[in-house]
Amino acid sequence: MNNATQREQKMQSTDRKDIILIANEASGEFAEKVAAELRVPFSRMQKQRFADGEIHHAFPEEIAGRELIVIGATPDDAAHQELIDLIDGAHLLKAHSVNVVVPYLGYSTMEQAKPDTFEIAKGISRTRQIFRARPNFVAFFDLHSESVLHAHNGGIHTTNIHTNELLVKKIRDLGLTDFVLVSPDYGRSKWVARLADLLKVPHTAADKDRYAMDKTMVGQVAGVVKGKTAVICDDMIRTGGSIIQTAERCRDAGAGAVILIATHLVLAGDARERFKAHGIRTIIGADTYPGVKSDELLEVYTVAPLAARCLNKQLRIGEEREYQTGA
Asked: What is the distance in angstroms between the CA of the first residue and the CA of the last residue of the chain?
């Protein structure tokens, strides 16, 4: 059998025994979905907390020389640190490659510091900490800003997985006949414009201004929404303040109905109660944020197939490089 045939057979296999898929504690449920899509087992880390609060980690099996996939959302400081521990530990135990998927990146909205505030741009600093652990590949979902992709000194392959195709399908499945896509601010308007182009519908953007850490003010929405269903699209919903205001401005402008869609459904604090109090009955979003499930308010779809597709491509690229270099 020649090298070309061997390469083709190896690259066609997606259930190879040299792949180990693990997750930090925050991402176990999402990791199980990705593992099912890849047709590989999900291997749980061995984890124990000592009386003094220190945490013992052990990989479930031998990882030396094998392709490691780590699924690790970072919704809080503990999840962030655990992800770094897993990446660094994989190198210590000589994994062949460490391929990371971060479904939700904490602090991602803090990608730049405001002038004269002396604040830390934690969107960059936290992502740099992940990169300093030297994963071979890191994929994120619908980043607030793609600037974090470049927060390393080279040698790390990064990508931002866009959920557009699943989002467009979800909107089409709603069966709406006369609707407008709305961006809560001009910063997301290009992304919303791309979605609108795929759906062949008009779009507009709200006029939003941030005046405090978690406080925004939405001024107005164009009259293009009058008599139509306003589908408000954003990358994430945290406290819900700005998107609720956008919904109200759409109603003020004559929208017949309002639907909210966002990738990352954080819904911090009393966000759920606030949505219900403002007449929001349905929010559509992805399963990137840990613990989010469909219920009477949320309609959640999975982006695990996109993660699996990305990982399959990355692992095959790695194999191709090895064959080209004679490894």
From this structure: 17
